[in-house]
Each structure stands twice: as C-alpha cells, then as structure tokens.
Amino acid sequence: MLLLEEQPLGAIVLDIEGTTTDIAFVKNTLFPYATERLEAFMAELAPTAEGQAILAQVRAEVGDADLSVEDCIAQLLAWAKADQKVTPLKAVQGMIWDEGYRTKAYYSHVYDDAAAHIQEWHRRGVPLYIYSSGSIAAQKLLFAHTIVGDLTPCFQGYFDTTTGAKVDATSYENIANTLEIASKELLFLSDHLGELKAAQQAGWQVRAVQRPGTADFPPDLPSIKHFGELPIAFSDA
User: Fold this and answer.
1) Subunit details for this protein (predicted)?
2) How far is it, in rounded angstroms, from Cα 86 to Cα 138?
3) Which residue of 53, 79, 138, 181 has the smallest Cβ count within 10 Å?
4) In the predicted model, what is the mean pLDDT of residues 110-120?
C-alpha cells in the first residue's frame, strides 16, 4: 500500500510549468518559438484536415462561423501574445513544438529532483499522471525530449484543458472519475495557488511546490521545495 502521511495514496498527478519544469524554459524557449512560427505554420496547415479542424475550433471559440482563415490565424496569434489558455491555440503550439523537438532546436528542462523521483516512483509502481494547460500532445513531447532522456514511460496518462479549467474543482472531480480513484487518494503537485485550492475543494490531497522565484504560499497550505520532501511510505500491508 502507498501512503502519504498515513493516508492512502492511489496516484500522483503533476503540474508541469513551475513544478517539474522551470518556467523560464516554457516562457523563454517554447512560447517564443511557437509564436514566431505560428503564422507561417498555420498558413501551410490551413488546407489540411488538421488545419480545418483548428480553424473550426477558433470560429466556435469566438462565435463567428464565417471568420476568414486570415482572421482565424490573427486570432490565434493574438491569443498567443496574450498567453491565453485556449484549446485550439494549445493544439497549434503543440504541433509547432513537435517541429522544434524533431529538428532538435531545443530539449525540454526538467528539475533534477523531479526527474529522479519520477523515475524512482515509476520504478516502485506509483501511478503517475500529468495535468497541464498545455495540450496532451505537447505534454508528451516535453517529457519525451528532456535533458535527461525520454520520461514518457513513467506516466500512465495525461490531462489538459479538454478536461476543464485547472482552477475549477469540477476538473479534478472529472479526473478522479476518469481514473476511478477516490479523490481523497489523489495527490496534486503544483506551483499555482488557484489550482491547488481547486484540487483541495474537490477533496484531493495537495502539495504546493516552492521552486526558486515562486511566490510564497499561505502557511496553512502544505508545501515542499523539492520532490524528495514528500513523505511517501511504501507498505506491504
């Protein structure tokens, strides 16, 4: 049996940005690369089935079924520059990041303690999942091309904004239902106070991750500075 401070633990769900991965990598490498490539990339993608699906999502998002291709691309670019967590934008960013990884334009950052414990927890049979605002495709790409190698075999599944907003307690209820694990047996690790509060509201166990540069968390919120501080116990009982 897996325990966290004597409470049963069925799985660990991890945020990415600011939790497993330095925000600077996402902010200074991934997002600028995607924004710079977005217009040309979408112009090439638009005639394809994938491109048409994204354009349809943009039109649905803004409530204008007649929005031109050029205006759809302009809207995607505006969302990108405003760092909006909109599903069609996340899908396009994921495709562009795939291009960057394939061409070895960059490798993704993972904190040393996160990489080590993700691998160790996986080795010991801990079910691990990711819940991030980035698309599932982008999540898989990030963990497949890290500075320490491919970590995707360590994860049993991924969740993104199609599950719901990360600051909405219903999203965490949806994840618990999908995993068929009681909310009280799920642990969420994140650097975002709103996400942690939403997970708590849904009945999850939480730990705030205090990385360098992260704002201080309220004293009543359990927090850790690195994954090694998690009091996980492995019992044969």
Assistant:
1) Monomer.
2) 14
3) 53
4) 97
